[in-house]
UniProtKB/TrEMBL annotation:
It comes from Bradyrhizobium amphicarpaeae. Transmembrane segments: none annotated. It comes from the Bacteria. NCBIfam families: HAD-1A3-hyp, HAD-SF-IA-v3. This is HAD family hydrolase. The keyword Iron does not apply.
Amino acid sequence: MIFDFGGVLTSSPFEAFARFETERGLPADIIRRTNAANHLENAWARFERAEVDIDTFDQLFATESLALGAEVRGRDVLPLLQGDLRPEMVEALKRIKAQFKTGCITNNLPANAIGSRTGRSLYVAEVMVLFDHVIESAKIGLRKPDPRIYQMMIETLKVDANNCVYLDDLGVNLKPARKMGMTTIKVASGAQAIAELEAATGLKLS
């Protein structure tokens, strides 16, 4: 059982992006469109692989967003990433862990990129101990949807891809997992994800 973190165990940052855009009078979806353009090699991808520092990311994101219609500083986007933990998903994860091997593959940012995380790091740590193995993009220099990151997880957990379930909130990240033979769940809400997890595992998770 392999989980993404942000947007799966936490609420989606997209809601925060939309609020930010409305408050600043920016074009709708400018942040998401900037993230999606050239998504394997853009500022976001390079930052998640720890190839650039925060100052470079700030400038690159500003340039890329400006090309799409409005300048948004990379530094201003980072605080928007902190979604709220979904307690029902954490409870489901605890029940799954009692029966199955668990892994987490997260496209994350270099340590301290978001700045102070008072209180947050503590509860994230509590969730992270529920995984048998965690792969973080910023630590290994690879990020989803690179197929190698999924392969690393399967090899570390010593499981067959055909027996794995993978959850992510982004379709682009589900494709490589599905191609490898995993059952995939696109997470839109906690309730929907739990219903699909119950169907996939046969466990009562809520």
